[in-house]
Design a protein that fits this description.
With about 400 residues, the chain is of the alpha/beta class. Helix content is about 45%, strand content about 15%. Helix 8 links the parallel strand 5 and strand 6.
């Protein structure tokens, strides 16, 4: 008779990966691609606002450049780094180009964090940041975000108790998912605390240019601030060009890791982004157009919330970015999601962004991808789903009694 194996079953994934939470948002994208589903879920820029003709023009121009189809340095094409440095207002030696800003976040986690190091994040959290830090087996400490951004009061108390974070991460402008923007006092306090206690601030800023009043917030000051930027939300996600703006010592560390990750980014795409960003007259007009469209769509969403849900919904009107964070007191948003999908509308439940906080009655709604009339229809479907879920609960409670 054949021997039966007595070998223990070994998990296929590494110990580090076993600690990484999956992304409910990414899982939802497959559902939202189904015909007839109106998606308030994904953090996608509006396809109809992507400047396809201008990008095609940049591709035609730049493909003729010497070495446009060749490898480039791990740090990125010098022309693109120069242009990004001009946008950021810094020396090009502080810039490293990455495959979207998410790669910069992942590489920074590997470069700066050892297993067990403390990393402080906002709660609710940007899930991509949480995954990057979980992947390096950091000890995650989450602080409830405030309307002024990172909770510097709670952070100060943490530091006074002797906790020494390696990194404090925040999406500083039009926070994903909460929509909050860090105030000037918050930014200054973070910089002061970083200088005093020696941690790095990772200022994740893909949305800063998408301000509805045209004024981009001032970056968090100080040499211990590492800024991440991206062309994904302002030009096109498919270009996959992001950047890291940091002290040259940090840039050198991340460059060394990038050599093992992908050798280098796309020379052609980086040249195209350089062409687009350097055309400042066109780019500024393009940003104004996007911000104006998003402001109009955000107003359509919040007006529909008022009309359909009235006093049963709470939110802060978005002042930029792509998201509206809502509370529906008494409603479990995870519970009603399947009902909402059956009515052809999708959103992301608040629990998908929670670290410690109880966000069961919250949800992130993205207004970027849908036209105003469609946004109103999406909210109407959401209200119907909420009403039907409430009736179903009442019916079950009655039959149970």
């Amino acid at each position: 008779m054949p021997h039966s194996s007595t070998m223990p079953t070994v998990p296929i994934e590494s110990a580090a990966l076993r600690g990484v939470r999956g992304s409910a948002i990414r899982d939802l994208l497959a559902v939202t691609e189904q015909p007839g589903v109106l998606s308030l879920a994904g953090g996608l820029p509006a396809t109809d606002l992507i400047p396809g003709d201008r990008i095609a023009d940049a591709a035609t121009r730049m493909i003729g450049q010497p070495n446009a189809l060749q490898y480039t340095t791990s740090r990125g094409v010098s022309l693109c780094r120069d242009v990004v440095a001009s946008v950021e207002g810094v020396d090009p030696h502080r810039i490293l180009l990455t495959h979207g800003s998410q790669q910069a976040l992942s590489l920074l986690a590997q470069a700066l964090v050892d297993p067990g190091d403390v990393v402080v994040v906002d709660d609710p959290v940007y899930v991509g940041a949480l995954q990057a830090f979980q992947c390096v087996r950091a000890e995650i400490v989450a602080l409830p975000i405030t309307s002024d951004g990172t909770n510097v009061g709670a952070l100060s108390r943490l530091l006074e108790r002797g906790v020494r974070p390696r990194i404090v991460h925040t999406v500083s402008n039009f926070h994903n998912p909460s929509g909050a923007t860090a105030s000037t006092p918050t930014r200054n306090s973070l910089a002061d605390l970083a200088e005093t206690y020696g941690f790095w601030i990772v200022e994740d800023d893909p949305y800063g240019r998408l301000s509805f009043d045209g004024a981009s917030p001032t970056p968090i000051p100080g040499e211990r601030t590492i800024r991440l930027g991206s062309a994904s939300k302002t030009l096109a996600p498919a270009l996959r060009v992001g950047w890291l703006n940091a002290t040259p010592a940090v840039v050198d560390l991340v460059e060394r890791l990038k050599q093992s990750a992908d050798l280098c980014g796309s020379t052609l795409n980086q040249l195209m982004v350089a062409d687009l960003l350097s055309d400042t007259t066109w780019f500024d007009a393009h940003i104004d157009m996007i911000a104006s469209a998003y402001a109009f769509r955000a107003h359509a969403l919040t007006s529909a919330l008022d009309d359909e849900l009235g006093d049963s919904v709470e939110y802060t009107s978005p002042s930029g970015g792509m998201f509206c964070w809502v509370r529906l007191p008494g409603v479990d948003t995870s519970e009603i999601l399947s009902v909402a999908l059956s009515y052809g509308v999708a959103f992301v439940p608040g629990s998908a962004f929670a670290v410690y906080a109880d966000l069961t009655d919250s949800a992130r709604l993205s207004f970027a991808t849908l036209q105003p009339d469609t946004l109103r229809e999406a909210v109407r479907r959401l209200r119907t789903a909420i009403d039907d879920a409430a009736e179903l609960r009442e019916s079950r409670a009655t039959s149970g009694s």
